[in-house]
Amino acid sequence: MGLARMLAGALRAPLERLMARWARIRLIEPESEALSLEPTLPTLYVLPHPALSDTLLLASLTRAHGLPSAGGRRTIGAVTLPASTALPAPIRRLGRRTRRPAAPFLSLIEQCQRDPGRDVQLVPVSIFWGRAPGKRFGFWQLLAADSWQLTGRLRRLLSVVVNGKDVEVHLGTPLRLSELLDAREADLTNRKIARLLRVHFRRLRTRVLGPDLSHRRTLIEGVAKSPEVRRVIREVATAEQRSVPRLEGRARRYGREIASNMTYPVLRFMDGLLRRLWNRLYDGVAVHGLERVKAIAGDHTLVYVPCHRSHIDYLLLSYVLYRDGLMPPHIAAGRNLDMPLIGPLLRRGGAFFMRRSFRDNRLYATVFHEYLHRLIARGHPLEYFIEGGRSRSGRMLPARPGMLSMTLRSYLRGARGGGQPLVFVPVYIGYERILESGSYQRELHGGRKRKESPWGVLRVLGRLRQPFGQVTVNIGDPLSLPAFLDAEVPGWRGQLDDPRPPWLARAVPRLGETLSRRINAAAALNPVNLVALVLLATPHHAIEASLLKRQLALLVALQRRLPGGRHVSLPEGTPDTWLERVLALGMVERRPHPLGDIIVADGRQAGLLGWYRNNVLHLFALAGLTAFAFRHQACHELDGLVALLAPGWPILTRELMIAPPASLREDLAGMLAALVEAGLLEAEDGNWRRPRESLEAGEQLGMLGGLMQPSLERGYLLLSVLLSEPAGHFTADELTARSRELAERLALLSGLDAPEFFDTRLFSGLVESLEAQGWLHTEEDRLVFDDRLREAAQRSRALFDPALRHRLQLVSRPEAG
């Protein structure tokens, strides 16, 4: 034994040097500086299982990063142990696993019980040589990386050789041994500590690798043979006079059409490819809030729900999660992306494909739902876009119920067997410039949407030399589905046997609204959308550079004081650097002038900027509405301002998908104080008024109010049309169509090239909001209202100055003859 130890000691130093030269650590989490070690206490590192490669790498890492050494042995009082130890692996005898040996902390525990001053801190360490999900990959199973299966010495050696340039190290929170002691015997405490560490390692492994993957063929076969699919096959066979074997074959074809085929080699290839793409395409990817996901990833099923702004969204989130040590999700993608070359690559990266509509195909719907249920039941992370499609206007689109309903039903089905809790993770993705800006403008002006094809991808690759700025990924507040149901449907746990409980129809829309608001509450302000907010609030899309910079500073200052969302991120730098960035991206132009430069946007640029303004318009809803109230009336007191804004405020919050405040009065008081601090209002004797002397402050207040003017004008036009006829005259579709025509007319007369201003969906949303607030109701498809709506509309007209009211009335007046 002494000779073996001497031999191991002699070889250890050269092996450590070899390991330090060969291995490259891709991720250390947390950074060594953030590890809260107590410098006065001795440190022991604990690995999940014995592995020479892990101990050599850990020794090299601690030496390189100035951490307490993980090499050699550590003497603590009368106890001597290796500086890095491991939980013992179970002993295998004749292929059978026997009881696991005791953890190596017993002597330390006994010493600490005798002498509490002899404390020690334990640091759990997980090391991943590559990150293969547990799945059979043929030859790659031999070579590639850490998975759920325990690895033998030969496989570990090959894994170190193959994956030495793709290593992740996760350092756990240090554990004080004295804090883990209790009145029990040392042996029981030893087992408790080992159990605590094993739970930590298992949770972390789940977070990084995800659950064990079934082979795709096995999964498809299981879906096709599931009781629910077989029942539907029998019913369809009877109804359509088809043979059961043919329908079984069709179910398998549907499964192959849908199912992903996530593979580690492709994940690793795409990680390298996307890293180069982001570095070439963007000036970096900023990520905020990912720690909220890491805190729950180990023991929750995660469903990521990002906003959908670009095709890049599919790749971006998976890249960010993989880069930061989380398992990439299975992604629901439209079948239109299952094209040659691109589709197979996306499928192996985790995409599963769905048809745009399958309401009339019962067998397809059942197969898809069963596949989704198996992913959720096994705890695989998912990703889908609740908006359904990409937003051409830049706004958050209303959530579509399909995937949310299937997810909720699948969770209820799994909850009967006590499955793990499901959490939705809202994700906001903000771009300074998107690849599809030109196609969005064309489609908003009535152009046809181009069908996706490999040639379209090649056209995009040809634009990679253009600057696209930075991308920001913000994580919102995760939403626990059980907690949401407890609040919305208190008795849901007693109805788990019903596959379609009656409350589902009202819970799904509420779930969609809640998630949309949480996504918007994590918006990212960047230089482009800040400039868009200011420039598009001017009459001719032109402004002095000096005034533009002051308005940019004002908008950011308002967000710092009263953020429009809980997890809003702000740009770094100054108004000067923001403006230079937007100029460099070609979004606006600078016109030199002897009296000061002027920033302008031509018609094309103004159309593009509208998309970026709409990304973040919701953040300034209350500030813009408050400022607009001072456009016509120079002075307001708080009660009068609340009465003026209260009728329309819930409708505006619904349109912009922001959470309505608990108290409009309190939020208005806070906003008035912020505007006084910014110098845009003056307070005297319980009243607030526009500044009497400062013309610049009045101009800034006017631009701030201009942010909400389009929304208020749309509401004015719709109410003018509705109230021009007696109750019951219009259907919802007729009112929407007529209002849209008038908005288009107003845009043409104003020289406003903004198709989003007269978007039919915005007027449909206004009608739905009026119904939701009780101002309208439907009788035999006709919209009915009473005098309360006329009185509220009359009060709200006071927001508009006479000139603006006159212009809107002229537009809404029916043409003569």
Tell me the total number of β-strands.
26
Radius of gyration: 31 Å
Decide which structural class fits the backbone.
alpha/beta
The level of helicity is 40-55%
The total of helices stands at 34
The low-confidence runs, each spanning 5 or more residues with pLDDT under 50, are 134-144
Nearest-integer average pLDDT? 85
Shape: globular
What's the main sheet like? 8 strands, mixed
Strand content: 5-15%
Write a structural description.
- The chain has 817 residues and is of the alpha/beta class.
- The protein is 50% helix and 13% strand.
- The chain contains 34 helices and 26 strands.
- A hairpin with a 6-residue loop joins β20 (589-591) and β21.
- α30 (709-723) packs across α31.
- The protein is globular.
Keywords:
817 residues; alpha/beta
Task: Give a nutshell description of this structure.
With 817 residues, this protein is α/β, with parallel strands linked by helices.
Describe the secondary-structure layout.
Layout: H1 2-22, E1 25-29, E2 43-47, H2 52-64, E3 73-76, E4 79-82, E5 84-86, E6 92-93, E7 96-97, H3 106-114, E8 121-129, H4 139-143, H5 153-163, E9 167-171, E10 175-176, H6 177-180, H7 186-209, H8 216-224, H9 227-240, H10 244-258, H11 264-281, E11 285-288, H12 290-294, E12 301-306, H13 312-323, E13 330-334, H14 342-348, E14 351-354, H15 362-377, E15 382-383, H16 401-415, E16 422-431, H17 437-444, H18 454-461, E17 471-475, E18 479-480, H19 481-488, H20 504-520, H21 527-535, E19 542-544, H22 545-561, H23 575-584, E20 589-591, E21 598-600, H24 603-616, H25 621-632, E22 635-637, H26 638-645, H27 649-656, H28 664-677, E23 682-684, E24 687-689, H29 695-706, H30 709-723, H31 732-749, H32 760-772, E25 777-779, E26 782-784, H33 787-796, H34 802-812
Parallel strand pairs: 1-9, 2-5, 2-8, 11-17, 12-15, 12-16, 13-14, 13-15
Antiparallel strand pairs: 3-4, 6-7, 8-9, 8-10, 16-17, 16-18, 19-21, 20-21, 22-24, 23-24, 25-26
